[in-house]
Design brief:
Layout (H helix, E strand, L loop, with lengths): L20 E6 L16 E3 L15 E9 L18 E10 L10 E6 L11 E12 L6 H19 L6 H4 L1 H8 L3
Antiparallel strand pairs: 1-6, 2-5, 3-4, 3-6, 4-5
The structure holds adenosine-5'-diphosphate (ADP), riboflavin and magnesium ion (MG).
Enzyme class: transferase
Catalytic activity: riboflavin + ATP = FMN + ADP + H(+)
Family: Belongs to the flavokinase family.
């Protein structure tokens, strides 16, 4: 049983200030805790407050929005029609924080892309458009409870983004253009 919390968050009419928030970088190796084996691989980005000033002051927790990934031209999961060198756009849910369940001492940013990829994409450039906040970061009694909550976050993100005003173009034409801008 998952969470007595709503399965859709944020207003029907679309994202509100301070969103959209942007972040980008190259996908790095994470903590190697086997997130993939749990069915929730997370693409980690470096947390650098010099490049991403807002990250120092936002609350730790779970955010949702879109990820644009520059998958290599040879990657088996490039969306059909992506031009050479182009970025593919996918819905995402992400964690920013210290992962109290694991007692990290540095803040991490990790993105679970809501798409089944046929291969990894370490080293790929990834842009993120954060459109809203789902919940605060929590500690858990068990790994199973953590995974259940993350799976519910995925459902919340999918349903919340499926609304008309939450398409990237509807949320912000300028940010939607930034998302897929050639590198
Ligand atoms: P790490 O500890 O190195 O981050 P993970 O088990 O979290 O390892 O796996 C993350 C990697 O899995 C990503 O860097 C990416 O290359 C790959 N991956 C495959 N599918 C996804 C997905 N749907 N979302 C995020 N990363 C994915
Ligand atoms: N870790 C925590 O300790 N507490 C959390 O509340 C938490 N929420 C998360 C939500 C999402 C959507 C994702 C992708 C990760 C979250 N994590 C959280 C991080 C988690 O501990 C990490 O991805 C592990 O590697 C999973 O095994
Ligand atoms: Mg990871």
């Amino acid at each position: 049983m998952s969470a007595s919390r709503p399965d859709i968050v944020c207003p029907e009419a679309g994202p509100e200030a301070p969103y959209p928030l942007r972040m980008e970088g190259k996908v790095i190796a994470g903590f190697g805790r086997g997130s993939k084996e749990l069915g929730i691989p997370t693409a980690n980005l470096p947390v650098d407050a010099a490049l991403t000033p807002w990250i120092a002051t936002v609350p730790s927790g779970v955010y949702f929005g879109y990820a644009a990934i520059a998958l290599p031209d040879t990657h088996p999961s490039r969306p059909a029609g992506t031009p050479a060198g182009g970025l593919g756009v996918f819905p995402m849910v992400m964690s920013i924080g210290y992962n109290p369940f694991y007692k990290n001492t540095v803040r991490s940013a990790e993105v679970h892309v809501l798409h089944a990829f046929a291969a990894d994409f370490y080293g790929a450039h990834m842009r993120l458009l954060l459109l809203g906040f789902i919940r605060e970061e929590k500690d858990y009694k068990s790994l199973e409870a953590l995974v259940d909550d993350i799976n519910f976050d995925c459902e919340v993100a999918r349903k919340s983004l499926a609304r008309e005003a939450w398409r990237p173009e509807a949320a912000s034409a300028e940010s939607a253009a930034w998302l897929v801008k050639p590198l």
